[in-house]
Queue: 3 jobs
Job 1
Amino acid sequence: MAIQNKSDGRYFLLDANQIVKKISNREISCESLVRSCFERIEARDHVVKAWSQLNKSSAIKESKKLDKVQKRQLLHGLPIGWKDIIDCKGYITTCGSSIYKNNLALINAAPVSMSIRSGAMVLGKTVTTEFATSFPGATTNPHNPLHTPGGSSSGSAAAVADFMVPVAVGTQTGGSVIRPASFCGIVGFKPSFNTISRYGVKQVSDSLDTLGTFSRNVKDTALLLAGLTGRKEYFDISKIKPLKIAICRTENWNLAEKMMIDSIYLASHLFSKNGINIKEINLPDVFKSLDSAHHDIEYYELSRALQHEYLTTPNLLSEAIKMRIVTGQQIKLSQYHLASELTQTCKEVIKEKIFSKFDLLITPSALGVAPKGLTSTGDATFNRIWSSMGVPCITLPGFTGSDNLPLGIQLIGPMRGDVEVLSKALWVEKLLKKSL
């Protein structure tokens, strides 16, 4: 995946902030940028297979329109890749299933509309696993096509990592933003629950589904989040040095690969050298059942969300997803309520007993590097409990594991502390780039 110098119109190498600045200053045109992205896609996507749908002529037509607009918005001219469970007008929302091969979207999902309002454009739809669960699509890891890119936001992560698009949007119910971003070596951000509107997005779990972003640096993350929400406060971040960080040893700490744990301790050593107070903590005992509670909530809600497909076209569903639906139907209402109550208790405990003492938690983004093979998207062990609590999580690249594949470390902050998490992640990102 060698990338050469930016020359001869190789604008696909630019990051999002560079793009909007150059377009605003009329140093490059929206059309030339889009054509450059398609050149990269045409050169690489036969290997990476990140895109489920592209409409080159439509995208170029839209870019020409944007070039004629005099008033430049926050995301003016920025092309975005959208996970294929998110409605984009004029594109088919397949949800990674043949059931929806003709499901043409007549309107845009709310976050798509928000991005267009901010001046962005749809570059195309990115591959998702079947209904954003675990049955994989065709996408490969851009660093090694024999390895998974992660999932369920497989195409979004891979397209950004391979320089086909500067930013993309995905969703996370368990670990579908953080894990693929780590596997592909980019920045993945799952904001606080419901920060980005879910209207027009195929539902899996109403209590857990969260839209998130993929980019190649933290500043681009903040820019995209501001455009998707219409809230410029998310973009107005500045580097803030965290004062207290805790290495959070979850119940499944011993499942992480040695290189992942080594990366966590290397990062913590760098933090300590730069005057940050570092401690190791174990979560209170009440968290021991939270992973199981996440399972109960997800499967219970998934079994309701996919009832139409299960009743009308079960033969077009994978065995894996049918198993989840059947399992969810067997979960008793009382069990579901207990899982929801436990989740609420953990939200209160982490706010009062953890984030009252620490600015950030640091923990693995995944078990390790992207597993070899394309039949699995990896394990969400180090993601599910944070998805349950709805807290903001960001994975930062910079480390390398076995087979020269990337590793990411995960930073976690308090609920609704997204601006502070991004600001502190900006400081951490600079430290990692300087020191590694």
Note: Residues 133 and 152 are 6 Å apart (CA to CA).
Job 2
Amino acid sequence: MDDKELRALVSLLDEEDQEVLTHVENKIISLGGTVIPYLEQQWETQFNPVVQRRLEDLIHTLQFDTLRERLSKWKEGDMDLLEGMWLVATYQYPDLELEKLRNDLEQVYYEAWLEFKPEAHPFDKIRLLNSVFFSKLKFGANTKNFHSPGNNMINVVLETKKGNPTSLCIIYMLVAQKLKLPVMGVNLPNLYILVYKSEETQFYINVFNRGLIFSKSDIDNYLGHLNLAPKDAYYEPCENLETVKRVMRSLIISFEKLGDPQKVEEVKLLLNSISDQWERM
């Protein structure tokens, strides 16, 4: 469709006849995400508030549909964790670029690399990373606003240095892995942690508690307090897919706390796009 035809469609967005309006909107949506830049341009030059609002709704619908498609493709690919977190963040920040996240993360890695000692004992390597992450760069728990949606957006956490257990763990883990450390996520009930797992040693890291190092027996005690039976999944690394799902579930809770049912339902749809059929029941 050329610009002239698109212009003609947009000019009909002030239509009062609901049947005609629905037809026009469906036609625009059928064109897919490639028309978003044009609609944004039209929004900037539009003086009719009704048409502006309808353009905003169309842009959001197209961005949302595009995101669902991207998440589905991500699940079918190598499920790179940073890319998955980027996709989640584009729900709120559709213009966010993956390359910006890579650059921001690279800066955190560089600060850690400057002080890193590859020959150190695993415990000492983690203590060095803790020193950079928490003392030098000032990353920490957002306890004052724990349920803020921004705590689940990796770009926001990289900027504010405040996050929830999962988002802080993800950034810490991505930096650790760039340092060639065998650090992976563990999907505990009510708490996301990290495991340092090599042939020689295995221990756990609570990033939300400033990188506290603890053992398997501590997880046993934690599960005991929750009256939960031990499972392998509570001690072993989880897949990136499970980590991104956990972030989405946290985001759903955030929007529930804010009283935003529309966003709650939208994030549930996004979660469904990377969940198996049995998980949606």
Note: Residues 3-76 form one domain.
Job 3
Amino acid sequence: MTDFRLLSTRQQNMLRFMQSYTQKRGFPPSIREIGEECGIGSTSVVNYNLNKLAEAGYIERSGKVSRGLRIIRAIPGFSGAKRVLGEMGQHQVALVGRIAAGEPISLPEDIGHHIEEDDYITVPPRLLGGYDASETFALTVRGDSMIDAMIKDGDIVILRRQNIAENGEMVAAWLPEDNETTLKRFFLEAGKVRLQPANCDYEPIYVHPANCEIKGKVLSVMRSF
């Protein structure tokens, strides 16, 4: 294995950024993010250096998935690299867009399709609720209507793909007539759907069942500190 001091300055900086990013967010950076942080304008150059780091025994790469990176060798100045990354596992979940925890916002109806390589995140197995990663997807939360459910603006919610929900479950609900989606608790009452926020500053949304399509049920939340 190559001594850390024999790596190029660029490769050392890439490793330090990958480790710092992962420790803060719980999943590794994308190729694009590594390039932006390290001043590399070409993704092919980033890939070249990642391959060199893999050859040097510092990282493992999971196929062609951009976030499928795992540091397997200690980096000077960082501790717990193997422990942190080993706990994460290699489950790739599609980060398909943003969802409103507040007023509804637009989200493509073909949720989870046509996902680019950089739109996958690595999720610890314990956050998948026992489901296979192929049954799940992720969304970035925008808004504060679910803060009393411990979901804040900027969090990433992991959801299971499903089109039904039980009363009280937190769901991503698509409203076809409004061409909007929202994150709320689902209740079916007296022939109407109530989408209930978890913030007393917001009113519930009432819609006809025909104007409410469940896209997924929330399994867990990821947060950066």
Note: The first strand starts at residue 59 and ends at 61.
